[in-house]
Amino acid sequence: MNEIKTAQTAVEEKDYTTLNLGPTHPATHGIFQNIVKMDGEIIVDAVPTIGYIHRAFEKIAERRPFYQITPLTDRLNYCSSPINNMGWHMTVEKLAGIEIPKRVQYMRVVIMELARIADHIVCNSVIGVDTGALSGFLYVFQQREHIYEIYEEICGARLTTNVGRIGGLERDFSPKCIDKIEYFLKTFPAVLKEFESLLMRNRIFMDRTIGVGAITAERALNYGFTGPNLRATGVDYDVRAMNPYSGYEDFDFVVPVGTSGDTYDRFMVREQEMWESLSIIRQAMDKIKQMPEKVFHADVPEFYLPPKEEVYNNMEALIYHFKIVMGEVEVPKGEVYHSVEGGNGELGFYLVSDGGRSPYRLHFRRPCFIYYQAYTEMIKGAMLSDAILTLSSLNVIAGELDA
Amino acid sequence: MEDTLLHTIHDKLKSKFGEDIISAEQAYDFPVYTVSKKKIIEIISFLYNEEELGFRFLTTMCGIQFPDNKGGEFCIMYQLHNMPKNWRIRLKVYTPANDMEYPTLTGIFSTANWMEREAFDFYGFIFKGHPNLIRILNMEDMTYHPMRKEYPLEDGTREDKNDTMFGR
Fold this sequence. Notes:
heterodimer, A: mainly alpha, Cytochrome-c3 Hydrogenase, chain B, three-stranded antiparallel β-sheet, globular, B: alpha/beta, five-stranded mixed β-sheet
C-alpha cells in the first residue's frame, strides 16, 4: 500500500503546512502578508510580501512644491508624524541654508519628543496586547490622547499633523498649549510607572518576551537596523546624539541600550527612552521660558508665509505670499541628506534639487522598510505566536514600509 | 574637519583604485565620490574591510535618473556610515541607459536585498547575482518602471488642467 508511509519516509517527506498570515489580519497590526511554511506550530520559512499601501510618494514629490511635501511625510510613520514633518523641514532648511532661532529649535524638540512618546506608547502597549495584557494598552492610550490634544493646540490636527513650516512653526505655543504640556509632564510619569509595573516584572510577560525574536548586533548592523531595535542589541547609535540636529546637543540625555536584542530588550529600551524624552521636554520647556517670547520662525520671507494682514496691506508681503503659494521660490541646486531619529529608527531624506519648484529626486530612508527584511530570519524556528510578538515589537508601520 | 575627511578617504581610494575614482566633492555635510561601475564591489569591500575606514553600515541606496546626462543617464547612490568614527560618505555610480546591469551588494550587506529590489522596481536596474530580483512595492505584472522621468505623474491627455500659468 502506497498510502501508508513508514516512519522513515514520513520524516523524509514531511508535510508542512502553508499558512497565509495576512494581508488583513487583526494580529498583524497593519497590512503585512507573510506566507509561512510551518512544521506544526514551528515556523520553517516565511516569505513576506509588501507594497499593499504603496502610494508612490517619491514620484508624487517630484511634482510638488517643497511646502506641499510635508503632508506626504505625515503618512510615512503615522504614529509619530511630527518627527517626519520636522525632518522634512530641516532637510529643506539645510538645502537653503536657513538658520533657525534657538527658541524655535527647542519648540520643535518638544513636539518631536512628544511624538516619540506617542509612538513608543503605541508600540509597547501593543506588545502587551499580543501577550494577552489588554488593560495596559487601554490605560496608556489615555495619555496618547493628551499628546494629541497638545498637537491640536499647536497645529489643529491630531494624527497626520502637517505641523511646522519651512523656516519655523506656523504659530507660537499658546498659553493653553503650555498648560497642557505642563499637565502632561505632571501626570504622565505616574501612568508610565504604573504601566511598567503591570508588565516589566510580570512573569507571563517575561516568559513570553525574553529570548523571543532575538538578533545579534552584527546581524542587526548588516541588516541596517536603526533606532530602538538596534539599541536593544547593544549598539548605542542614536542620530540625536551622533549627528545632533535642532539643538539636541544642548540637552542632557542618555541613550539606553539593551544586550540581547530580543523582544523584552526592545520593550525596555523604548520604556527607558520615554523617560529620557520626558526629561528632554522638561529641559526644553525650561529653556523656552527663559527666552524672549513670540519668536516662532526664522526671518526668511522667501520661504515663510507672511501673516494675512501683512499680505493685504504690504506690497512686499503680497509678492512673497504669491511666490510661496505658486512654488516660485528660488532654491539652490545641490543634493542634501538629512536624517532625524524617528520613532523607529533613522528617518532620512535624500533630496536632489535642480533649482526648480519641486525636488528633482526625493528618496526617503524609511527605517521600517530596511529592517523589516530581517523579519524572516528572526522568526525562523520560532512559534507562530512569537512571530506575531516579534512583528509588533519591531514597530513596523505599514505606511512607512510601503511609502 | 569635513574637508579633511573628504581628502583622507579620497587619498586612500585614489592610491588603491586610481582612475576608477572619477571625482570627489563635498555636498553639504557629505563627501561624495563618483566611482566607476566596474570596480564598485571592490571599492565598497575595500571601504568595508580596510582597518582605518571600516564603513560597515549601508545607510541607504537609491536610483536617480538624469535623462540629459548623455552616457550616464542613470545613477545609483550608496550611503555608507562608519558608526564608531561617525563618518558618512556617499558614492555615486553612473551608467548609460543601455547598460542597466550592476553587481549586487547583497554579498556584503544583507540590507541591500530590498533596497536593490526597490531600485529595480522603480528604475529597472538589473543587479547581477541578486538572490531574488523581483518587484517589491508595485504589483508583479506591471510592465514598466514608474520612477523614470519619461512617465509623467499626471495623465498627459487631460485638457482641463494646464500649467502654462504656473510652475516651471
